[in-house]
């Protein structure tokens, strides 16, 4: 799994930071990528990466502010031109379907694939054998969802020598054991999968939060998460403004990570008021409260390997 930030600015694009978009790459896990928010010119940002729009399987929209959705119609259209044929699922608040449908209809855009719209309400919004995604409402000036993505425990590897000792022949029976099935041998003996596989490995958990002021929901979404992606539109000097605009400071984001017992924090949604030389200060202030803090820039990539977050 990797996280690839495409837009880390707040409100308006600047030369340094585009508006919000974040790619969760699940290429090893499921051969696809998931996109969180799609600010204007997200497809232009993608041109500078190795991300292929047709690989985007799901898009999760946190809320309907323009800096989080104005790139959608263009992206959806280009995905068609670039050979996208698989259904794309679009998750977002009420109103998203209406806006996309009107944009595509009025511009006579015909897609080569179908869009499945999911109007998000609080709770589990997606689950399959690999992942479970939960949504909860944060506290912003319009309805805004935070998403928690949990990877289910991974099947432990097959202990092949042990299986052979118990008389399991080479071939498909080994595959069944690996997949958790118990098997019966030709002589009637039964081999249990749990006896010949390593214990399951825990999956990862990421909380990707949209725009929000400091709130309890941010904490519950982030609880024990491996990675929390939290906005930091303001800093402690402008703290008095943060809550009234429905936003957080870098210090508040660090408090959320600390109070929720998260392992890593990545700050995004950074205001253009902060100049490049302010960024180090923002990071250091966050680190005083939560040492494993990072600030994402546009095109920052983070790798999740063996339970560690590595900044590329
Ligand atoms: Zn925003
Ligand atoms: Zn907003």
Structure description:
- The protein has 312 residues and is of the alpha/beta class.
- It folds into two domains: 2-154 and 202-305, Metallo-beta-lactamase, Chain A, CATH 3.60.15; 160-195, no CATH class.
- The protein contains eleven helices and 17 strands.
- It has helices at 27-30, 42-47, 66-69, 72-81, 96-106, 160-165, 172-178, 216-222, 239-242, 250-259, 276-289; strands at 2-7, 21-26, 32-38, 56-60, 88-92, 115-119, 123-127, 131-137, 145-151, 183-184, 190-191, 205-208, 227-232, 264-270, 293-295, 301-305, 308-311.
- The strands form three sheets. It has an eight-stranded mixed beta sheet with strand order 6-5-4-3-2-1-16-17. A seven-stranded mixed beta sheet has the order 7-8-9-12-13-14-15, with helices on one face.
- β12 (205-208), α8 (216-222) and β13 (227-232) form a beta-alpha-beta unit.
- α10 runs parallel beside α11 (276-289).
- The radius of gyration is 22 Å and the shape is globular.
- The protein starts with a strand and ends with a strand.
- 39% of the residues are buried.
- The site of one zinc ion has 4 residues, from loops.
